Amino acid sequence: MDVIVCSNDQNPSNFIVKLEETLDFSKMYQVGIKSISIATPSNVGNGKQLGFIYSTMVPHTNVNLNQRRYMTLFPLDSNNGYNHHEFINPTYRTICKDTTIEMEFDILNLKNEHFQFSTNSIKNFPTVIALHFREI
To answer: Structure pTM?
Structure first.
């Protein structure tokens, strides 16, 4: 099952979404990210950078000796406008048993900081993440 989640107009790199009553949480699921569209952050600089997606729906893993809810990483261009990345072979993570309908997403850079966006980017380019859920 595919689900599209979208940031609000406050911060495209940290947002909370509510899933509709589409998942039967008595069953076990895995989630993978099919694609992400995100505005070009103002602190990307020249060239490419990596973005890291974390979410409260997946269990903790060790990232740099810290417990984090890591989902995946993706490349970010420094071009103005939207950056879009499709995952040819998404990495699937098992959903936490304590997942609720409300899920938080954090998109961080290599320094473990949220990306900074211009006010114009926040209004015109929300972050859009296409998720794929599969039952296990």
So the answer is: 0.81
